[in-house]
Design goal:
Nucleotidyltransferase, domain 5; alpha/beta; 273 residues; 7 strands; two-stranded parallel sheet
């Protein structure tokens, strides 16, 4: 404990109950050690996970500016990262997030929750072109996944009428087709943003960045469009302490500390990060 210079903690956004526990613990620990606190935006942590380095690793971090596709159960955003502390959301979902759509479709199929790892594993065994689902036509760089979710649900309902065991007979193909549709939606808008802004350094972050199909798409786009891509290690895709520590480290260099009175927050203002 005596080696610590400051305590970095997630202040938000997220589930308020969980945040209150973490914030309270951080305050108590910082006060007992007499060291400053650094509040970290949870989403900043995901975006900056690409700057985590371990001893003797050969991982190369992106250069500014770069685009980051931030995809998780609660977020689907395209972030223009201009510096460690200057980030702009240029596109985001107007309804469901990509991870949320995967989870809900997995639940409809009776596969369990969270659906991400289950759908990923099944998709590797299925035909991604077996089924076609609705894709949104949203202007700009924003996303929408509610239409896809509805399309999946209604199609499944009709297919089950003809074959009560349809899901069991086709679950790998359903998973592969669902994954392909979501990845196509994500990558189309990301490609548009990269082209418009003339940015070749493109990263992915968040829980859905662990998805095999999305990772493969990044490698494919890198070959097709000359992108230099950055994909985090699997251990840094889901929520983790290291990403909060690295975000806190950059704020520590600026002596950007927060007061003991700082409360947790569950949401941030629209288009802010």
């Amino acid at each position: 404990m005596q080696q610590l210079s400051a305590i970095a903690f997630t202040r938000g956004p997220g589930l308020l109950g969980s945040l209150l526990v973490g914030v309270s613990f951080a305050k108590g620990l910082a006060a007992s050690l007499g060291i400053p606190m650094i509040d970290v935006n949870h989403l900043h942590g995901h975006v900056l996970a690409h700057f985590i380095h371990t001893e003797n690793d050969d991982y190369i971090s992106p250069e500014f500016p770069y685009l980051c596709l931030l995809v998780s159960g609660g977020n689907s955003q395209i972030v223009l990262v201009k510096s460690y502390k200057d980030m702009e959301i240029i596109g985001q979902t107007i309804d469901d997030a990509a991870g949320e759509a995967i989870d809900k479709c997995s639940k409809v199929m009776g596969l369990g929750y969270p659906g991400g790892p289950i759908i990923d594993k099944l998709a590797r065994q299925g035909n991604p072109d077996a089924f076609t689902f609705s894709k949104p036509n949203i202007p700009g760089y924003d996303y929408s996944f509610s239409g896809l979710k509805t399309s999946f649900l209604y199609n499944l309902r009709d297919w089950i009428k003809d074959d009560p065991d349809f899901i069991e007979h086709h679950k790998a193909d359903l998973a592969a087709s669902l994954e392909k549709t979501i990845v196509d939606i994500l990558m189309k808008k990301l490609r548009l943003a990269a082209k418009d802004l003339k940015i070749k350094q493109v990263a992915v972050a968040g829980g859905v960045s662990a998805n095999t199909g999305l990772r493969n798409a990044f490698h494919d786009y890198a070959r097709r469009y000359g992108w230099k891509i950055f994909i985090p290690r699997f251990s840094y895709t889901t929520d983790n302490a290291a990403m909060i520590a690295i975000a806190g480290y950059f704020k520590y260099l600026d002596k950007d500390f927060c007061p003991m009175s700082a409360p947790a927050y569950s949401r941030v203002a629209e288009n802010s990060l």
